[in-house]
Amino acid sequence: MTDRETGSESTTLATRARRRLRSFDPMHLAFLALLAIPGYVFEPLAALQFFEVFFLVFLWPFVAPLVDRVVRRGADEAREEPTDWIRMGTWREYAVWLVMIPVTFCNPFVVAQDLLQWLGVPVAFVRHRGSFPDAESYDQRVSYRLPFDGAWTVVNGSHEQEYSHSWFPVTQRYAYDFVVTDADGRTSPADAGFDVGSYYCYEEPVLAPADGVVVDVLDSDVEASRGGGFSHPLKRDIRGNYVVIQHAADEYSCLAHLVPGSLTVEPGERVARGREIARCGHSGNSSEPHLHFQLQDHPDFAIAAGLPIAFDDVAVEWPGATASIGDPRSDTIESASDRDSEAEAGGGPLADGTYRARSHITAGQRVAHVDGDGDDSRRNRSDVASETVDETETRPRDGRRAGTAALQRFGFGTCVGGVTAFFASIFVSWVPIAVLLGGGAAIGAAARTGSAILGGGERGHGSMGTVVGIGTVAAVVAWYGHTAPALGVGLQPLGAVIFFVGFLCYVALGEYDRLQLSRSFPDRTGVRPL
């Protein structure tokens, strides 16, 4: 049994309050804020603008940790929460993180992507016919290993709601954040400061969790030089630099917050399980270097639904374990999870004392991959044959996908422009907005053209599509400035309409892309889905 499974009869009021706090998810109320948007577009529905107060609910994920700290005062358990042993900073780092929140929300790329995640929830809901995947019913199609070697700590994430990365939006429901900790639970030496290079996990290799085909990457997003709650204010993606790999018809892994320039793969490239694909970094929405990993049902992060994942060949150590995690025979290492049936997982002790059980992991555990190369019978449960496929067979399909991805990125650029117009119109007229959007598009186009000429262009699909989308919105805003009296529509409603047009374009092309990738998957890799 683990520490968190004992002493349930003597829990304090503060502990029960924390559990109630975790089970209560006010983010459901955030959807009411969407009712305010028609009030800005149609004058007879102006009364609906009242619902804009529910936009404040989006701040709950940032307030919840502070509330949790308050209700924890007076608790008498030495270690009630599974992550209490992890030391990721003091109130100073938390204060810096809070200060960075309004700075981050001044970035229209971040705001647009956050809105897409929330609007993507009903899209995923319809795709799954009204029921999201869960750990009990979902049967993953591929055998996955941990995306790293050595011992890492699960600082965030679980297949259970109480310790989930974030139950809503659903795209990150089963996501994990991994760091490397020392014996004291620190992620960097006590006197090391906040330079990213001082964190134990920074620049550590990130590995492909299973065989598959790379479908999307970003390798040029900016990265803050300091941790301790800091993130770069000019990030272009909340994931920072990332890799998305297709492993089955509707199973994709996403590995995020990678070091810029560290990616070793490109879209259309086949990768083998355990191959190094990048290095762990601090790009995107990151308070300190860590690896974000998730399994999702869609190639596009914003409109995907997270999938529960159980890893194979895992050694698990709970807080307080005294033995080395490198020894899979140790009694303190649960190579086969006590929570999962070994019969169901298909695992059990082998002759050498190690385990090949399929295990869910959860926040507060230290985990390591146990070399299972000698037992490939469960690797994909589908006779991996990608080595026999001519790599050039993937290129034509990848080329056609590039065109779809560029159009989808155009939709995203339209969303960014719409968000900018909507919020900036509260403070300024159409002229500064048109100049801001047009200037940003021009700078982006020049940067990408220059990179292409110098041979260092982005590896990801459709980056220029985002630039064209923003430039198009700049032209629409400029046109609006000269025809506003005739239109009879304010700039703020126009921004909302532009955003939703971009969103519909984004979703339609994203779903088309997903269907094409799913149908062509066996032809691209030679791996037969179950």
UniProtKB/TrEMBL annotation:
One of its GO terms (molecular function) is metalloendopeptidase activity. Keywords: Membrane, Transmembrane, Transmembrane helix. Residues 203-297 form the M23ase beta-sheet core domain. The chain crosses the membrane at residues 26-42, 48-67, 462-480, 486-509. The keyword Transmembrane applies. It holds the Pfam family Peptidase_M23. The keyword Transmembrane helix applies. SUPFAM superfamilies: Duplicated hybrid motif (SSF51261). Residues 321-400 are annotated as: Disordered. InterPro entries: Cell_wall_metabolism_enzyme, Dup_hybrid_motif, M23ase_b-sheet_dom. It comes from the Archaea. Residues 328-342, 368-384 have a biased composition (Basic and acidic residues). This is M23 family metallopeptidase. It comes from Natrinema salsiterrestre.
